[in-house]
Design a protein that fits this description.
With 223 residues, the chain is α/β, with parallel strands linked by helices. The protein contains six helices and eight strands, in the order E-H-E-H-H-E-H-E-H-E-E-H-E-E. The protein binds flavin mononucleotide. Flavin mononucleotide binds next to helix 1.
Length: 223
């Protein structure tokens, strides 16, 4: 944020790990602090808030979409953006976050369409879990999310945090704050540019038919 500029945007922020002592939850908390210090508002969520059974279309048709997915959808549509700090599991994203994305993709309108997102990761490894973020971007971008190009992957995360929740390494802390700030500014700019339109078209068949197509457009009246 530029000095004197206040951020007027809101975010849902969470770590995509069910583990109590999650490093990614700590990184998500740090992102929430940066947002609040810039004047933005945050829904501090936990992966367990959005817990869902494994996706099964029979369950969906019988019982509907589960409460955890509905909670995530409400958080998404009541805020301007989402920040996910996700572990890397076996060079990809954890099943629990993919399962949540699969469930929320079943809502119409599709709640990730046009949603601003920043993804980050923390891992004890030297790679910081960055490969998992490239996997996580795929379903999010497929569903129309505007996933911010920059990402932040914290290597050796088990040793990276100080007692106050910040990163011990001052340079890394500065870079982290810079990445979050740049994201906030891009969300704020998009929010206040009233002519942005978006279109999302998903073809699940070779030939589009009503049975396979999902198309969502948005129009904004000129001011
Ligand atoms: C099933 C499993 C697979 C993992 N695969 C990777 C991996 O591919 N790359 C990596 O950097 N760390 C991997 N790890 C280590 C995690 O990065 C580490 O457990 C991390 O702390 C998990 O995130 P959390 O602390 O937020 O729960 C894996 C851990 C588990 C349990």
């Amino acid at each position: 944020m530029q000095p004197g500029k206040r951020c007027s945007t809101s975010y849902v922020v969470f770590g995509a790990s069910l583990r109590e002592a999650s490093l990614n939850a700590r990184l998500a908390s740090l992102a929430a602090t940066v947002i609040e210090e810039a004047g933005g508002t945050v829904i501090h969520a936990k992966m367990s808030d959005f817990d869902c059974p494994s996706y099964n279309m029979d369950v969906e048709l019988k019982d509907g979409i589960p409460a955890g997915a509905d909670r995530f959808r409400s958080n998404l549509i009541s805020t301007d953006g989402v920040i996910i700090a996700s572990p890397e599991y076996n060079a990809s994203m954890p099943g629990v976050i993919k399962n949540l994305i699969d469930w929320i993709s079943r809502f119409k309108p599709q709640p990730l369409k046009g949603r601003h997102a920043l993804v980050m990761s923390a891992s004890p490894s030297m790679g910081g879990g960055n490969r998992g973020l490239w996997a996580l971007r795929i379903p999010m971008e497929h569903l129309g999310a505007r996933v911010y190009p920059d990402m932040f992957s914290l290597a050796q995360a088990h040793e990276a945090f100080a007692d106050d929740g910040k990163l011990r390494d001052a340079k890394l802390q500065k870079w982290f704050e810079g990445t979050v700030d740049c994201f906030l500014e891009s969300v704020e700019a998009a929010k206040h540019y009233p002519l942005i339109k978006s279109q999302w078209i998903e073809f699940l068949g070779e030939k589009p038919t009503p049975a396979t197509e999902r198309v969502e457009t948005s129009e904004t009246a000129p001011v």
